[in-house]
Amino acid sequence: MHGTYLLWIIKTIILLVHKSPSKTNIVLDFLMFCFGVFLFRNIVFVLFFYFVRTIFNYLLQIVHECINDETKKKVLCSYVTENTWMDTIPGFQHVTFRILSHVSFFMGFFALYRFYSNLTRMNIFDAPITWLFVPQNKIIYLLVTAIVSILIGIMFQYINYCTVTGGTNFFDKEEGVLYITRYGLPIPGISRSNVRRILIKEISCLILVTHRIWGDVLYIETRKHGTLPMTPTKDGRRYRLTKHGLELSKFLNIPLEISYEEY
Q: How far is CA 237 from the centre of its chain?
């Protein structure tokens, strides 16, 4: 039993050393590991510290990639033929949901490990495992915490990858109809897609609201339904739609109004 744990610990150390970007970090990681084992007398606690540090570096990388991605204005993907025009609106995937899902999974599997260790009274290298902030003899509490945390992590991943608020804008000049399709969460018994049918002759103009920081938003002004957004407005994504609006205005033969917002 102890040989298996020792092999697992050695493999974990090799993986951490292999992931280090430079030799300086390899030496620093090794010294920190030895100091942690000497100070806390518990290899599991030191490995837990390294795991938390790895997760923290991963979260910093996600935030850095998110900032780089958000500083670039995107353009919509359009498919155009002689009589049809279709814009694809990407689904909403926020970095917050990814971070919360990772944290929930970590809490769930860590609570599950504590449940197993508390159930079997497992000791590693004759060092008893003592857990802080956990009621004694509350095995059911640990099991429920693990299950709930894992389910919450699955829920966040489910929301993040279901392309919520995504859809299409389909203009058909031959039939004179605009179909606005938006997707929600796939709930059993409830239609996921929300389709709105608008006659093109009811569209009086296109409105492009452009902002120096927050990007562009394209609206349509209709006589019957009022002003309707055609692109995402409040999900943090930034678009560059000036050229797109001009081409769509020319395709539909509908005037385009451009509104500039400084703040």
A: 13
